[in-house]
Prior knowledge:
Layout: H1 2-23, E1 27-33, H2 52-59, E2 62-64, E3 67-68, H3 74-83, H4 117-123, E4 127-133, E5 151-155, E6 177-178, H5 189-203, E7 209-214, H6 226-231, H7 238-263, E8 270-276, H8 282-285, H9 301-304, E9 308-311, E10 320-322, E11 326-327, H10 329-338, H11 355-358, E12 369-374, E13 377-382, E14 385-389, E15 396-399, H12 415-429, H13 442-450
Parallel strand pairs: 1-7, 1-8, 2-10, 3-11, 4-5, 4-7
Antiparallel strand pairs: 2-9, 5-6, 8-9, 12-13, 13-14, 14-15
The structure holds calcium ion (CA).
Calcium ion (CA) binds at residues 34-35, 74, 219, 277-278.
Amino acid sequence: MKTSLLLFVVFFITIATSAQKITQKPNFILIVADDLGYGDLGMNGSKQIPTPNIDRLAAEGMNFSNGYVSAPVCSPSRAGLMTGRYGVSFGHDNNLGGTQPGFDPQYLGLPLTETTIAKRLHNLGYTTGLIGKWHLGYEPQFHPLKRGFDEFWGYTGGGHDYFEWKSNGKGYKAPIECNYKTPQPITYITDDKGDECVGFIKRHKNKPFFLFASFNAPHAPMQATAADLKLFENIKNLKRRKYCAMVYRLDINVGKIMDAVKKEGLEKNTLVVFISDNGGPVYSNGSINAPLNGQKGILLEGGIHVPFIMNWKGKIRAGTTYENPVISLDFAATFFELAGGEKTDNVKFDGVNLMPFILKENTNIPHQSLNWRFTISAALRDGNWKLIRLPDRLPMLYNLAEDISEQNDVALQNLDRTKAMLKTLGNWDVHLPHPVFLEGYKWKARQLHLYDVTYPLVQPK
Length: 461
Ligand code: CA
């Protein structure tokens, strides 16, 4: 009698637990900073910029010390984020500039052959929202509301003025678009985006949602509020002072989003991730990638190795670090599987679901190797070895386990490895399709120049 009662109870609990699993799909919040320097967070050693909220996101979650993006500039990196695939695998190699001779402007955006993670999650019953920057095409067919987002507050371009938009404005002054309310004048755009994210969370707290919080901070134009600038008046370099104030304000708004998740009681059912879309462009926005060498636009670590955080209360152990290489392409694959999506032949990711790895259910590593190709440059990371190939010099090889700042090129001391990696990289490269659009040719020479200048590798006081 007792045994049958026990069995009944066990049976009931099993049914209840599996039912809960089916109904409680997790929410996803993807917070993206724009052109943030690797070293410009407290957690990564900054002594100049307090970032208590982003630090807390990592301290209460997991910090990935070898987190990468799939491209060193905005648009192809975001193409990777949105699809879970290398942009170069479908022709989205370049940043979005004007149309080049011989190219069709109808293709100037995230190729329509690709399905975004927003669309996939929408199809799985999620409400999807983009707050902020898109930068994946201006033509109507590329509009975020046509690529899987239910709600959009923002702009389709690659950057925006922080204080103003105009109804007939172009470029950084483009009007704010919104499909759920009439956009008001902006106060300071980082604050406005934070507020819209909070609004989205409140509106959709009762069913699964995907929020892409796409900040433009600290991307140019370099603009900060007078009050925030005052906090950094000890910094003499005006560009750096503005930059610090912009990152400080970004951090406050990340805190706003975290507080909203907590206030609505969603912490245990919400996976929050934070990343920068590429490394800091040291010489244009005043960022610091220390201890990483290089910057936005190139394949040294400073261009592609970024802050990378996952936070999920009760699921991901607080205060942990994951050291194996991961890539932003993993987010789409992770979200898709957590949402109950089924892998079919039509669902292709270059990224992988990270959850089994970080929960130690799978003790293998997520990626033995990672590849990059960006216009004239290409790179391969295989284990701790990284090879970079450029058109005007011998290939460069670094051992990242000993040389995270890429100061000692050991290609000639390891010729067999260099040759083998060059062959692997070349073999990947020649099987990729043609780019569907190009950016202006002048960027190629500027890119080479960026490999020859020096970068700050230690933090300023
Ligand atoms: Ca960027």
